[in-house]
């Protein structure tokens, strides 16, 4: 017959229990450190700045396109009238640019919500609750309490751990995805749209300056005006081609930016959240 151990004390904790205790202590130490919060906040702030820049770019494009749509020039070389209406070329992309500005406003709002959630994940009450539950979980492991109590404490601890680290982890992973897969498209598309905005703005300024030229009074002024209009009529096709090129680049680059911000503010955060919740589910079943 096996004799009881001297003193009748609790048996020493197993290796699995010691590893679980070490994991809980490590998680608590990481939760107390502000490193992940600072990194996540910096990444979200940078993404927020990019979204604001995209929104400002969209509004600037909308402004120069609206000016071009309201522009019409009548050139009359040799008594023949030619109308130059750039708005007809830019009209098909005007709706696209407006929708792009809405998407950028939604992206900016989404990143603002992420900033609030990041600050909530660093709330002192959440950290205190995580430390207390972690301490109880460590005690339950070391003292070999009932399995049901350990399971409840473990699930509560994992839930608090998810609330503490989910948003910083999503922000850091999201920034890695942007740097690895999306940054080149963002830089190229932003530069193209800025150049297109400047080009359309310059053409609008040239058109406005030409419309401010006073009407000719003498015969010499009329001759000069007829010569200038003849040159403008020859140059009309070139200007229309400039508007067409700007419209083409705006369409392509706008769609690329929409993809970048939808992936960064909607698709990847949801994917990361799904992965984290799936991992939590598996851990909670153990």
Task: Produce a short descriptive summary.
The protein is mainly α. It is 84% helix and 2% strand.
Could you explain the architecture of this structure?
With 286 residues, the chain is mainly α. It has a domain at 35-123 and 166-212 and 223-285. Helices cover 84% and strands 2% of the residues. The chain has helices spanning 15-32, 35-69, 87-121, 124-142, 147-211, 219-285, and strands spanning 73-75, 82-84. A two-stranded antiparallel ribbon has the order 1-2. Strand 1 (73-75) and strand 2 (82-84) form a beta hairpin. Helix 2 (35-69) packs antiparallel against helix 3 (87-121), helix 3 runs parallel beside helix 6 (219-285) and helix 4 runs antiparallel to helix 5 (147-211). Mean pLDDT is 80; it is low at 1-8 and 75-81.
């Amino acid at each position: 017959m096996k004799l009881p151990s001297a003193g009748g004390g609790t048996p020493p904790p197993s290796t699995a229990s010691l590893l679980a205790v070490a994991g809980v202590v490590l998680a608590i130490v990481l939760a107390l450190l502000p490193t992940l919060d600072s990194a996540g906040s910096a990444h979200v702030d940078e993404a927020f700045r990019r979204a604001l820049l995209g929104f400002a770019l969209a509004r600037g494009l909308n402004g120069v396109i609206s000016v071009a749509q309201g522009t019409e020039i009548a050139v009359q070389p040799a008594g023949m009238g030619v109308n130059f209406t750039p708005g007809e070329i830019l009209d098909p992309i005007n709706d696209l640019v407006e929708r792009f500005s809405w998407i950028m406003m939604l992206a900016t709002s989404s990143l603002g919500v992420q900033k609030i959630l990041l600050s909530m994940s660093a709330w002192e009450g959440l950290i205190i609750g995580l430390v207390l539950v972690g301490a109880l979980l460590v005690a339950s492991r070391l003292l070999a309490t009932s399995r049901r109590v350990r399971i409840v404490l473990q699930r509560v601890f994992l839930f608090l751990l998810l609330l503490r680290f989910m948003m910083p982890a999503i922000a850091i992973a999201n920034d890695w995805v942007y740097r690895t897969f999306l940054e080149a498209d963002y830089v190229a598309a932003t530069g193209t749209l800025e150049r297109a905005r400047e080009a359309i703005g310059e053409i609008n300024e040239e058109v406005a300056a030409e419309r401010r030229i006073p009407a000719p009074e003498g015969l010499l002024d009329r001759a000069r005006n007829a010569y200038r209009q003849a040159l403008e009529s020859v140059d009309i096709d070139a200007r229309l081609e400039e508007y067409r090129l700007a419209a083409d680049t705006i369409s392509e680059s706008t769609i690329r930016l929409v993809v970048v911000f939808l992936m960064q503010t909607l698709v990847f955060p949801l994917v990361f959240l799904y992965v984290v919740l799936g991992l939590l589910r598996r851990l909670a079943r153990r």
